[in-house]
């Protein structure tokens, strides 16, 4: 190391480096040099003891530490628009691998399917009934208007031998079940049964009209949904009444027997004399058919009855079963 030494009255000249032998005891220790260098550094204001005792020094040290931490950049704040939110998004992206995304998508699909199924069930069990009941009630009002009041005129044209498909020609009453529904010609599902109407078997399965002198007046109706006029016909027992109203007459039938379950292909239940009905010969009968069990169309059930009263409206009163 080169040091400067000043001689009085002369110029400053460099002092020659002492040789190794000029140091007493040899080369100075390196640690001693470092300590000297530290001592030669002027003490900072932060290193000097704070006046006022130990409490004052603690406060001064705390203040110095706070100032230092305030001046340092925050590790959590981040710079350049990234910051804590960016790190959270990155961590979330690392956690959501393909497996998690697939499970999430599958769960959302199941929720969507569940909502769709609930809406479908509500439509089938509730809304179809609302629409069908509204339509059937309107058709009842239309028929009653067409018949012109009580139809008590004694001079009326003869009943037709056939009715146009889809035409409404009668109203069925089942007092025990609180049923009052129009009867239409045919058993088409979309145009008749799904509209809450009761259909009269015709065509290849043609059956008698209520005003015929003999035969089986056979009807079909939904047991569930779309107005479900025949939902509770399994509750009918022998002795219960069924009334059919036409333009000029009231026809009252009494239930005699039923068949709880049979094949949909068993058309013998609507024959002129159904073999399982208990009837032994020709007569004026009625047959109600519907699906069974509930909410399925696997089988059919039948309820049979026989005519007990043909009351002209000209009599001026309703049958006893409706009064």
TrEMBL record:
Against InterPro entries, the record matches this protein to: Sortase, Sortase_Class_E, Sortase_dom-sf, Sortase_E
Q: Name one GO molecular function term.
A: hydrolase activity
Transmembrane region positions?
A: 101-127
* Pfam families, A to Z: Sortase
- Using the UniProt annotation, give all residue ranges assigned to the region (Disordered): 1-94
Q: Which residues form the active site?
A: 222, 291
The lineage's top-level taxon is Bacteria
Q: Which UniProt keywords apply?
A: Hydrolase, Membrane, Transmembrane, Transmembrane helix
Please indicate if the UniProt record lists Hydrolase as a keyword: yes
> What name does this protein carry?
Sortase A
């Amino acid at each position: 190391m080169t040091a400067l030494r000043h001689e009085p009255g002369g110029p400053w000249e460099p002092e020659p480096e002492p040789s190794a032998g000029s140091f007493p005891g040899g080369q100075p220790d390196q640690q001693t040099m470092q300590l000297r260098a530290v001592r030669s550094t002027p003490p900072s204001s932060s290193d000097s003891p704070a006046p006022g005792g130990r409490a004052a020094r603690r406060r001064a040290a705390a203040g110095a530490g706070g100032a230092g931490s305030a001046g340092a950049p925050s590790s959590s704040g981040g710079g350049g628009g990234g910051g804590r939110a960016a790190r959270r998004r990155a961590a979330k992206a690392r956690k959501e691998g393909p497996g998690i995304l697939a499970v999430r998508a599958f769960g959302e699909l199941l929720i969507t399917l569940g909502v769709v199924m609930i809406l479908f069930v509500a439509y089938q069990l509730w809304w179809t009934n609302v629409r069908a009941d509204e339509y059937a009630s309107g058709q009842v009002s239309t028929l009653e208007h067409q018949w012109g009041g009580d139809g008590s005129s004694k001079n009326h044209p003869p009943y037709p031998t056939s009715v146009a498909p889809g035409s409404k020609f009668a109203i069925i009453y089942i007092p025990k079940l609180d049923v009052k529904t129009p009867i239409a010609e045919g058993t088409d599902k979309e145009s008749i049964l799904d509209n809450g109407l009761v259909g009269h078997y015709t065509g290849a399965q043609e059956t008698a009209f209520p005003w015929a002198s003999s035969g089986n007046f056979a009807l079909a109706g939904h047991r569930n949904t779309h107005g479900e006029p025949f939902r509770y016909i399994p509750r009918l027992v022998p002795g219960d009444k069924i009334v059919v109203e036409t333009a000029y007459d009231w026809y009252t039938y009494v239930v005699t027997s039923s068949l709880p379950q049979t094949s949909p292909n068993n058309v013998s239940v609507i024959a002129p004399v159904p073999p399982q009905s208990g009837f032994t010969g020709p007569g004026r009968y009625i047959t109600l058919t519907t699906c069974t069990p509930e909410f399925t169309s696997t089988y059919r059930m039948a309820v049979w009855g026989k005519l007990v009263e043909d009351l002209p409206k000209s009599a001026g009163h309703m049958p006893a079963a409706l009064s």
